[in-house]
Design brief:
The protein is α/β, with parallel strands linked by helices. The chain contains 6 helices and 10 strands, in the order βαβαβββαααβββββα. The chain is elongated and about 80 Å long. The chain binds magnesium ion. Magnesium ion (MG) binds next to loops.
Length: 274
């Protein structure tokens, strides 16, 4: 069944605990990715609601969490476990519980549980727990969707930036862009262009990510999730030679190659940094 709701634990998953309230590294990006993925993210914690609201407001104020986190839907427990059937207008099978602690998983809902690695003292700044958790969520949510392996491979490749293909674009095989090219210093991961296509091997996604320093990334993800790199214009320019004749030959060769790639990118509507 399609996952429509992600229910999040608080202590040991998103923050240290309700006393010290140390936000887990990558919290904001994690919350934004969950929201982009399913639209409905709810809080399912043993911390009572007034206390949770105070913690959430503080995290928003410190910009550790997106603004909506302060008003996130709060699911009140009924019993010792976190029964996903308590989420209004949602079947238990349509929800995931993200929690570090098995004891809260409601009997029969083990398959809906994503075990977040416990965020433990001394709460290292390089803790990777939320990134690991997000990838587990991707594995559960994305493969059941249209072009699921393409969506999964793309999300995993882009997990550092939190980019997820918009569901509508995938459903309609519509080209698009994620991010604003005017934003960011170097363009790294700030904007990604994509389009859908089909050839004799099936459907695919082509994407193009701008990076003014390391060079752009151009690639194709096929229906089975496999990836192949495609041509980009090198940011490093032609190979040079001290022999003027050889140098001229190398430059001409490089220019021809640049022209070939540029016209291919233009045909696809992908803007090169070079
Ligand atoms: Mg916990």
């Amino acid at each position: 069944m399609n996952i429509r709701v992600i229910a999040l634990d608080l202590e040991g998953t998103l923050i240290s605990n309700a006393h010290s309230q140390i936000p887990r590294p990558g919290l904001r990006r994690f919350l934004e990715s969950c929201k982009a993925l399913v639209g409905r993210v709810v809080m399912f914690t043993t911390v009572d609601e007034p206390r949770f609201r105070r913690i959430a407001s503080q995290l928003v104020k410190e910009r550790r969490a997106p603004h909506w986190f302060a008003e996130i839907e709060y699911i009140a427990r009924d019993g010792e476990t976190k029964n996903l059937a308590l989420i209004p207008e949602c079947q238990a099978e349509e929800a995931l519980l993200v929690d570090d602690y098995e004891i809260y998983v409601h009997p029969g809902q083990e398959a809906q549980w994503i075990k977040a690695p416990y965020f433990d003292a001394p709460y290292p700044a390089d803790d990777k727990g939320l990134g690991i958790t997000l990838n587990m969520i991707f594995e559960k949510v994305l493969p059941t969707r249209p072009l699921g392996q393409i969506q999964l491979a793309f999300a995993k490749m882009m997990d550092h930036f939190g980019h997820i293909l918009p569901e509508d674009d995938v459903a309609q095989r519509r080209r698009g862009r994620i991010g604003d090219p005017e934003d960011g210093d170097y363009g790294y991961g700030d904007s990604v262009y994509y389009l859908f296509g089909q050839d004799d091997r099936g459907e695919y996604l082509d994407f193009y990510m701008l990076h003014r320093i390391a060079g752009d990334t151009h690639g194709r993800i096929r229906e089975d999730g496999s990836y192949e790199g495609l041509d980009v214009i090198s940011p490093f320019g032609p190979v040079r030679s001290s022999d003027p004749e050889e140098d001229a030959r190398l430059r001409a060769k490089d220019q021809a190659e640049v022209n070939r790639i540029r016209s291919m990118l233009e045909a696809k509507g992908f803007p090169s940094c070079y």
